[in-house]
Amino acid sequence: MNPVVGMITLMLLAACSGRPVVNQVRDHDGLLRAVVTRRDGVKDGPVRFFAADGSTTTGRYVDDSRHGPWVTLGPAGDTLAIVTYEHGKKDGLQAYWAPNGQLLRVERFRDGGPHGVLYRFFADGSPRQVTWYDNGMPEGAYMEWYKVDSTSIAVTAGQFHQGKRTGRWTWFYGNGKPQRQGWYREGRETGVWRWWDPNGKLARSVDHGQP
Q: Residue 77: exposed, middle, or buried by beta-carbon count in 10 A (0-12, 13-18, 19+)?
């Protein structure tokens, strides 16, 4: 083959190999479930998924990895989730909503793991959880609320250090009175732990001693 012709042929093949190809994916009933962009056989470019409930998720792949913001919309067009990726790993702000627009969860990730404060909410907007993270591990204050019934909410309050429970932890009844309280040291129960009945009367105590 003429060297010049051979060089031109290689250049044309290289150019063609990088062209994006858009594929439609359908289920066994023929319903469209995804529109995926591929390049050289791998997912690379915009993508859109169609769920059976009518919600849609749009995002982008780079070299077969999720990258940038991925957005999920409900059947009515309301935003249900915004999840941000950095080459396949969650990174940056993440947020989730109920169909009525109520924020349910907001958190930050760094290099695939939670980093910073996590907030969770019940569907009525009342707090459900506050937890701090440091490079994927709980670190610092922790609070979680539990709905006992329509009028009372129980609470757990404590703290973490390097992913382990530490310091004083308290569990409260829905009426606000303490249900249980004790201390942790490097994730292990230590010292005197106490339990109360819903009226505030001491029910029992256990001394775990020092670890």
A: exposed
Which CATH number does the domain housing residue 54 bear? 2.20.110.10
Domain membership of residue 105 (yes or no) is no
Q: What is the mean pLDDT of the chain?
A: 91
Whether 53 is in a domain gets the answer yes
CATH code at 136?
A: 2.20.110
| CA pair distance 24, 33, nearest whole angstrom | 8
**Angle at the Cα of 168 (from 164 to 170), degrees rounded to 5?**
105
Residue percentage of the chain with pLDDT more than 90: 87
Please tell me the number of Cα atoms within 13 Å of 119 on its side-chain side. 13
Residue 121 has pLDDT above 90, yes or no: yes
7-21 pLDDT, tens digit per residue, is 444 344 444 457 899
